[in-house]
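User: Can you predict the 3D structure for this chain?
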Amino acid sequence: MATSKEFVGAELELAYAELVDGYVNGGFQDGGKDIIPNDKSLPAFQVKSSARRAIEFLARSIRFRRFIPVCVGEPPKTREELVACIRSRGGWVGYDVPKREEAYAGIELVRAKCSRT
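Assistant: Here is the predicted structure, written as C-alpha cells:
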C-alpha cells in the first residue's frame, strides 16, 4: 500500500517529467535516475521531496563517485530555468526549500568531488 509520502513523490516526479518532456523511471533499481528527458542533451536526474533525502542521495554519490543531478522540492515554472540550473549547478532547488543557496552549495560540492575521480 502506498503512503501519502509516496504519492507526493510520484506527483513531484510527474511534474518534473512533464516539464522536461521526459518520462518517470523511478523505483527501485533505477540507478538513481528518476526522470529521463526525451531531449538527450539533458542528463537523467533524481527528484527528491526534501533536502534531507537529497543529502542522503548525494552522500551515496560521493561513496560511489558517480554524480547524478538532483532536483529538490517544487519544480520551476519553466523548462529553461530547470535546464540552466542542472547544467550550471548540478541540479535544481525549489523556491520552497529552506536554505536554498546552502543546498546548491552542497550539490555543487558533490559534483566537483565526483568529477575529480
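The chain has a mean pLDDT of 87. The radius of gyration is 13 Å.
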